[in-house]
């Protein structure tokens, strides 16, 4: 991974001291709570339902084993012994004390980690494909570009007080997008042009939340050297003209829609004309320096499909099933990328205890060159495992409860912390995830259903990305009671054209009805599907109507009073 | 009028060092007619309307609201000494882009002052986008705020100061 220079470390250490000073002034009464608020937010500290919540950045989802051990140490020392991996490839601790913030940040800085810009109206953690650098369908390794953007956006003097938060994602894979790039404020699609040069298609104005929008590509074939200048132009237009009078209309997607894509692009291009080839133009030398950290690990020359693997596939149906769902092919012969499912039994999706963090760190050291990744589906990845090690790794993961063979299946539920923890939430989300896990315990049935994404958000802020789940569940509050609205047909495709926001099927449901409704919806799919057809493709072919009618003919389904909530 | 009359403490960057000094620059609010005296920052409209009178009263300046277009001030550059940028609310970051544009695109080399709800914890960034003086709200202690300028010893990206990204600067 990227190797910090003395300069990077100094910037981080100075940030810790800055925050220590700010907390000190707040404790002495020199800063009011209101004045501290934006300062603690841009260091990841929220005040939540039970306690502050600390969101720690995991830049583009990349972690080293020592970093994960430090997260375990922090969770044990200053929290309750576990952490929650988020849909933005970060990790959250739910019970720290604000006063401990500076010490926690200092501990993080000792392993080159931080909570910089994980909240607040600024550029947030850059996200990308968790299989970057190893996927066989990759055209450009996005990690060096992610790091270039991380450095550029860190403490950006002009763009630290934006109208609203700002999220950038990169994708370098071909014909697939594992970063939901089109749903970001800026999405960067990296590819090679005919001459082999890296160029970028730049998307702007995507986002979830109250107004889900698939972004618009506003620039094609931008030479990569200009990517920072072009982002600067986009952010300047947004910073100057984005709405600041209404928090719900302050994201760049609203500005783009108000101006129209053409006028918005004209503004950006006009600004970019002044920046093109200016000081922010990136250099080959700097990219090469950064890329050194992402050089391939010392792979061994290994035969593909070794005997140990072939034998295990035959001998253990459980292993074969896990291999089918949780193991991804690798660009290097004899290696594979392994997903560790954090969706199991009674544990909240994305949660991991400090003990397991330590054990996963040991597995990373033993099997994957000491590195791991966090996915936006809230799972972990060991990206460089020798195929002949897979049976032994599976055995250990099973013992740890991290081998649920469900990656990309119904039970790989993506879920925000919801009303149990989050003060923004309108409804609980974790018990809904649990009730669905419980209902669909039958592994054979779930495997037979095949690829299917189910996402749950406890409020319209959409941290659970319910808008793009094939099945989306949104918690809503109705006169103090919690209800759940269901959307169907959301999908993250390879590009904006194949990325869709789901449609609300009708009035919301009570919590206890949700598993029945999901079961009815799945019944329609099983009856109507063609051979090998995915849930979302059947839905596209037959339309919403039969799913809707099945959902509302389940016993007592639909609260009846929720009609007006269709337009939430 | 001398600079000492009506002086109040502000932070000014002098020879690269932030100091608390007293000066007489004051804002002429919208709807108030400029009385022709020096050390006044006029609303942009008024300054444009009275541009012929500005030089005689030198030094005078202009102030820009968050939604004022900095390009419109370019016509005044030859007759003014100071541009004030107003921050009606500390969270409203439009003034950062205003300053950036004035310095980087329009080439303003005169005084550039941050006005109104200016917080200690924003000063480092404000200096980087090109401000060289800072009028803190009256209830804030400018002497203590001076520490903000040494929060970071360096920076990643280019801005007005310094204009190059870290990796392109000499001696790195």
Specify the biggest β-sheet of chain A.
6 strands, mixed
For this structure, the CATH topology of chain B is Rossmann fold
| Total number of strands of chain B | 8
The dominant shape of chain B is globular
How much is the average pLDDT of chain B? 94
What is the topology, as strand order, of the major beta sheet of chain B?
Answer: 2-1-8-7-6-5-4-3
CATH C-level name of the largest domain in chain A:
Alpha Beta
Q: What's the CATH C level of chain B?
A: Alpha Beta
Mean pLDDT of chain A: 95
Percentage of residues assigned to helices of chain A? 25-40%
Tell me the quaternary state: heterodimer
Unreliable spans of chain A are 560-568
Annotation field: number of helices of chain A: 18
Strand content of chain A: 15-25%
Structural commentary:
The complex is a heterodimer of chains A (568) and B (172). Chain A is α+β, with helices and mostly antiparallel strands and 568 residues long. Chain A has four domains: 6-109, Sulfite Reductase Hemoprotein, domain 2, CATH 3.90.480; 127-292, Sulfite Reductase Hemoprotein, domain 1 (2-Layer Sandwich), CATH 3.30.413.10; 307-400, Sulfite Reductase Hemoprotein, domain 2, CATH 3.90.480; 414-567, Sulfite Reductase Hemoprotein, domain 1 (2-Layer Sandwich). Chain A contains 18 helices and 21 strands. Chain A has helices spanning 6-27, 33-41, 65-78, 101-109, 143-153, 227-241, 252-259, 261-275, 284-292, 307-315, 317-326, 354-367, 390-400, 430-439, 443-449, 514-528, 535-542, 545-553; strands spanning 45-47, 52-56, 62-64, 82-85, 91-93, 127-128, 168-171, 186-192, 198-204, 216-223, 327-329, 335-340, 351-353, 371-374, 380-386, 414-415, 454-457, 471-478, 481-488, 503-504, 509-510. In chain A, α6 (227-241) crosses α8 and α16 (514-528) packs across α17. With 172 residues, chain B is an alpha/beta fold. Chain B has one domain: Rossmann fold, CATH 3.40.50. Chain B has helices at 44-49, 51-54, 94-105, 123-128, 142-145, and strands spanning 8-14, 17-23, 26-27, 40-43, 61-64, 82-87, 111-116, 133-134. The chains are: A alpha+beta (568), B alpha/beta (172). Chains A and B meet through α1, α2, α5, α6 and α9 of A and α3 and α4 of B.
């Amino acid at each position: 991974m990227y190797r910090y220079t003395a300069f990077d470390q100094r910037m981080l250490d100075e940030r810790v001291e800055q925050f220590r000073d700010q907390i000190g002034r707040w404790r002495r009464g020199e800063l009011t709570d209101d004045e501290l608020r934006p300062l603690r937010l841009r260091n990841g500290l929220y005040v939540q339902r039970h306690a502050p919540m600390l969101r720690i950045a995991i830049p583009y989802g990349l972690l080293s084993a020592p970093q994960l051990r430090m997260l375990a140490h922090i969770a044990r020392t200053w929290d309750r012994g576990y952490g929650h991996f988020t849909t933005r490839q970060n990790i959250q601790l739910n019970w720290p004390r604000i006063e401990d913030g500076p010490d926690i940040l200092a501990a993080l800085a000792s392993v080159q980690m931080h909570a910089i810009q994980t909240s607040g109206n600024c550029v947030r953690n850059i996200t990308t494909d968790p299989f970057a650098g190893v996927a066989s369908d990759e055209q450009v390794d996005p990690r060096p570009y992610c790091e270039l953007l991380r450095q550029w956006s860190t403490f950006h003097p002009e763009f630290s007080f934006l109208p609203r938060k700002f999220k950038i994602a990169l994708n370098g894979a071909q014909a697939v997008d594992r970063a939901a790039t089109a749903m970001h404020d800026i999405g960067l699609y990296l590819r090679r042009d005919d001459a082999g040069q890296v160029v970028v298609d730049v998307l702007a104005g995507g986002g979830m939340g109250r107004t889900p929008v698939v972004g618009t590509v506003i620039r094609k074939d931008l030479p990569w050297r200009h990517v920072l200048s072009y982002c600067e132009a986009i952010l300047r237009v947004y910073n100057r003209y984005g709405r600041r009078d209404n928090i719900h209309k302050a994201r760049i997607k609203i500005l783009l829609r108000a101006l129209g894509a053409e006028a918005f692009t004209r503004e950006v291009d006009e600004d970019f004309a002044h920046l093109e080839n200016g000081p922010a133009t990136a250099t080959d030398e700097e990219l090469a320096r950064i890329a050194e950290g992402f050089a391939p690990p010392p792979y061994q020359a290994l035969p593909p499909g070794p005997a140990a693997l072939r034998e295990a596939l035959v001998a253990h149906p459980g292993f074969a099933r896990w291999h089918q769902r949780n193991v991804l092919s690798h660009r290097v012969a004899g290696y594979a990328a392994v997903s560790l499912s954090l969706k199991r039994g009674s544990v909240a999706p994305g949660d991991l205890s400090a003990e397991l963090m330590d054990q996963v760190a040991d597995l990373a050291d033993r099997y994957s060159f000491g590195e791991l990744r966090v996915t936006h589906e809230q799972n972990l990845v060991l990206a460089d495992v020798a195929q002949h090690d897979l049976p032994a790794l599976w055995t250990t993961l099973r013992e740890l409860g991290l081998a649920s063979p469900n990656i990309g299946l119904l039970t790989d539920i993506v879920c925000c912390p919801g009303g149990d923890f989050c003060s923004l939430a309108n409804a609980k989300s974790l018990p809904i995830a649990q009730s669905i896990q419980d209902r669909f315990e039958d592994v054979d049935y779930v495997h037979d259903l095949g690829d299917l994404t189910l996402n749950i958000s406890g409020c319209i802020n959409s941290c659970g990305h319910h808008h793009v789940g094939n099945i989306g569940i949104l918690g809503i509050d109705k006169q103090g009671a919690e209800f759940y609205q269901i959307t169907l047909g959301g999908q993250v495709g390879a590009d904006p054209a194949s990325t869709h926001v789901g449609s609300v099927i009708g009035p919301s449901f009570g919590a206890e009805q949700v598993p029945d409704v999901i079961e009815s919806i799945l019944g329609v799919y099983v009856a109507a599907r063609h051979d090998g057809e995915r849930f979302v493709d059947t839905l596209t072919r037959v339309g919403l109507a039969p799913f809707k009618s099945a959902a509302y003919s389940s016993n007592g389904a639909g609260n009846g009073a929720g009609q007006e909530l269709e337009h939430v | 009028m001398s600079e000492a009359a009506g002086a109040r403490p502000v932070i000014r960057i002098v020879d690269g060092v932030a100091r608390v000094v007293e000066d007489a620059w004051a804002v002429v609010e919208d709807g108030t007619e400029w009385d022709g005296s020096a050390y006044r920052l006029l609303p942009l409209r008024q300054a444009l309307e009275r541009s012929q009178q500005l030089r005689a009263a030198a030094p005078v300046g202009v102030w820009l609201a968050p939604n004022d277009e900095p390009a419109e001030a370019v016509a005044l550059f030859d007759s003014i000494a100071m541009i004030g940028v107003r921050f009606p609310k500390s969270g409203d970051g439009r003034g950062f882009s205003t300053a950036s544009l004035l310095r980087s695109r329009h080439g303003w080399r005169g005084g550039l002052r941050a006005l109104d709800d200016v917080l200690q914890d924003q000063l480092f960034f404000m200096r980087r986008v090109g401000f060289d003086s800072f009028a803190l709200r009256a209830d804030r202690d400018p002497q203590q705020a001076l520490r903000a300028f040494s929060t970071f010893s360096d920076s990643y990206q280019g801005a007005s100061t310094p204009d190059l990204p870290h990796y392109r600067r000499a001696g790195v």
